[in-house]
Amino acid sequence: METNLPPIVEGIKDGNILYKPLANVDYGTIGFVLICHLIIEHYMGEFLKTKHPDLYWSGARLKFIKMVELLSKYPDKEDNLITPSLRCLNTLRNKFSHDMNYKMQDEDLQPLVLILKRFNEEGESIPTNKIEILCKYTYKVCLWLAQALELTVNWVPFYEDLMAWAKQNGINLTSLAEPD
Fold it and tell me: Coil, helix or strand for 148?
């Protein structure tokens, strides 16, 4: 892709500014990594806002990695694979941020592939193409976050309905949780 973008500063040597042209930038890959990052960040934000609605989220302006840290405080039934894979995605985005000519490596995606293996349906193949891995990973993680969001949103009405039903039927559900 031919661009008219200015070069970036590569460094300063002996009082001279060294510029580096943006010659081999893979705009498609960088854009795809960024959009996957942004989509997952959106889902994490919605989940965290639902878990803690009383907090001032619009003023918090949390970065992706801070959301990952908050998310890591919730029980992860997926063998603690989710948050390391999210950290991996953030690291990958940062690699492109610090070196726009960076070429994604297979090892960059290993934690993401682990998620795909964990969440794969029977007979579902795991892609080998890096963009397809990112796409499928984003879909699986967003699905996981959407399910967590659904449980969070619908738990209170379910709990209230259950408690009303129990009271109506003379059942003390709180006594079930008390040790003998």
Answer: helix
